[in-house]
Amino acid sequence: MEMFGFDNTHLLLHYRDEMKQEDVKRYFAWIDQYLNGQPAQYIIGETDFYGNRFKVDDRVLIPRPETEELVEWLLTDFADQKDLKVLDMGTGSGAIAISISKEHPDWQVDAADISAKALQVAGLNNEMNKTNVRFIESDLFNAITEDYDVIISNPPYISEDEINYMDESVIEHEPKEALFAKNNGLFMYQKIADYIKIKKDAVHGSLYLEIGFKQTEAVTEIFTESIPGCEVTSRKDFFGNPRMIRVKY
């Protein structure tokens, strides 16, 4: 009932009241949208991620629970670290960056995305969660001028030939540029590796990346070939699928 602006107290006091006719119409319109494949998060206009609330619409990908585990991995590794500089590449709704910033307001957390529309949503979430994340409109690292201790990313990694195996509601409603990548879904990982290859002699740091559950070997190979001597660690999600890697360079 949040969509009507009702909190639990209101519901307890007014649960016998008849709904206004305009609210009934809105309710059934939402039901129709859902039955026609619209994701519930877009209908509600909000979703939860890492214990925080985020605005979402069709300008951004809906944050997934699996990505919370990527955030948790980073936060655990650097739990006692002060003055860390973190970049969230391909931030979308800002869920990753804002969640990290809420846990560590002492860190500098920046976030980048190529989509100006996505950054509009991220900015609203920054205000709603009272965080101080700096958002940068950038095609990958083109507009990034600083060096970072940690880069975290949930990039597009789905191969276009996998579209037939995907949920229709995802294909129809979520932004395709946040889902699909060229080169069998590996394009973004190669671009990130190319960037680190240039930086690694001057800057040492860590990458935390979400991957497709069949991509561990291929993504590991990209980084070990591009950055000799780097340390790549994979991790499974709570379903037992390998969905994350950490690269220390």
From TrEMBL:
InterPro entries: DNA_methylase_N6_adenine_CS, HemK-like, N5-glutamine_MTase, PrmC_N, RF_methyltr_PrmC, SAM-dependent_MTases_sf, Small_mtfrase_dom
MF annotations from Gene Ontology: nucleic acid binding; peptide chain release factor N(5)-glutamine methyltransferase activity
Gene3D superfamilies tied to this protein: DNA helicase RuvA subunit, C-terminal domain, Vaccinia Virus protein VP39
Presence of the UniProt keyword Transferase in the record: yes
EC main group: transferase
Positions of the Methyltransferase small domain: 73-166
Protein keywords: Methyltransferase, S-adenosyl-L-methionine, Transferase
Catalyzed reactions: L-glutaminyl-[peptide chain release factor] + S-adenosyl-L-methionine = N(5)-methyl-L-glutaminyl-[peptide chain release factor] + S-adenosyl-L-homocysteine + H(+)
A Pfam family it matches: MTS
Entry's Gene Ontology BP terms: methylation
The Release factor glutamine methyltransferase N-terminal domain, residue ranges: 2-45
PROSITE patterns: N6_MTASE
EC code(s) of this entry: 2.1.1.297
PANTHER family documented for this protein: HEMK METHYLTRANSFERASE, MTRF1L RELEASE FACTOR GLUTAMINE METHYLTRANSFERASE
Protein name in the entry: peptide chain release factor N(5)-glutamine methyltransferase
